[in-house]
Each structure stands twice: as structure tokens, then as C-alpha cells.
């Protein structure tokens, strides 16, 4: 399968965007003062674990998509 140059750049940008967004979200999740992420004793709540799982899955998918995009960009540069 051959990806176009624009699709390759889009996938690479999406992978980077995913990392930026979810790293920011995790930082905010750890600093949560509303009581959603941590209970009164300081223990993580179900909200914390669900959102941490979402972030980890998004990291993995963002990495995979970004790597596919990077490989497409490299391939497009070799052929041009």
C-alpha cells in the first residue's frame, strides 16, 4: 500500500497531536483538586483509572498512527 504525501503528513501530525493532548491531560489528571480523580484519602478513584486507561490506549494508537505516517513521509521523500 502506498500513502500519499499529504495523508502521510496528516497521520504523523495526528500521532504528535495525540501525544501532546494526552500528556497534558495526564498532568491535569494528577493535579486534580475536584475530588474526581482522588478520594479524600488520596487514593485513585475509578474515574482516575478509566481515564488513565484511555490515555494509555491513546498513546499506543497515536504512536502506531504516527509511525505509519513517518514511514509514509520517508518513503515519499525517497521516491521524489
What report would you give on this structure?
The chain is mainly alpha-helical and 80 residues long. It is built from 2 helices and no strands. The mean pLDDT is 93.
Concise overview:
With 80 residues, this protein is an all-alpha fold. The chain is built from 2 helices and no strands. 75% of the residues lie in helices and 0% in strands.
Class by SSE composition: mainly alpha
Uncertain stretches: none
Number of helices: 2
- Separation, N- and C-terminal Cα atoms: 17 Å
Strand content: under 5%
Helical proportion, percent range: over 70%
Largest sheet, strands/sense/barrel: none
Shape: rod-shaped
The secondary-structure element order is HH
Tell me how many strands there are: 0
Rg: 17 Å
Q: Would you tell me the overall average pLDDT? A: 93
Features:
single chain, 80 residues, mainly alpha, 75% helix, 0% strand
List the helices and strands and how they pair.
Layout: H1 5-30, H2 46-79
